[in-house]
Amino acid sequence: MALFDDLGEDVPLLGVPRRVVSLVPSLTEAIAVSVPGVLAGATDYCTHPEGLAVPRVGGSKYPKLDRVFELRPDLVLANSEENRPEDVERLRANGFPVWVTEAPATVPHALASLRRLLTQAFEVTEPYWLVQAEQLWREIRPERVRAVVPVWRRPWVILGRDTFGGDVLRRLGVSIVYGEHGDRYPRPKLDELRSWFDRGDAELLVLPDEPYRFTADDGPEAFPGVRHVLVSGRYLTWYGPSLVAAHETLSAALSG
């Protein structure tokens, strides 16, 4: 069965996958919920669904490929932003089909990618959560606040243009100040970040708990006097079943 992934690469499946190794946390959750029983392995960072009991194969950036080989998957799931091209090529060179999803720039883009993966590779009917997520995230609310959104510190890394998290916030009425930057993840100095608030060009600091775990004691202190909100990194950056709960939870957090 010849299919093509998001990057246009051939995925030579012999049939509907029955043993899947996922190297992407959000894809792991989507597959576990939508096609129960097919996951044969996942990364250490695949934390959902809670209680997922499958063999672990290391991290997304540096998976233990020998462990993946031992699991004998008939499909490996990867992402163009989260996984290294050399790992994808090594998996393919060893005879394992790999479906690479493209890093989505918008919520509709992400959901369309998931629909194609689920309905074409796994031949399942589109799940209810996907339809519900599309309905919830269709609206784009008017801009009501401008925000700086770090995803890492030491050095500071910020959400920029064409990012899934940026589009999630945009649909909730929050624009990101680096939304027109040349880089998807700019690395400005702290003084530059503070200057947005000093000039009144930003009013809100949004701090997710992943990939960097910002907390009440780690992050806000770098921006004295700035209004901040701590949010779930999973709700901000994962695309999959979590998008359903994310809409209400993020809306409440950002309006509080």
From TrEMBL:
Report the Pfam families cross-referenced here. Answer: Peripla_BP_2
Residues annotated as domain Fe/B12 periplasmic-binding: 37-194
Q: Check the record and name the SUPFAM superfamilies matching this protein.
A: Helical backbone' metal receptor
For this UniProt record, give its keywords in alphabetical order, as a comma-separated list.
Receptor, Signal
Transmembrane segment boundaries: none
Family the UniProt entry places it in: Belongs to the bacterial solute-binding protein 8 family.
Q: NCBIfam families of this UniProt entry?
A: TroA_like
Q: What is this protein called?
A: Helical backbone metal receptor
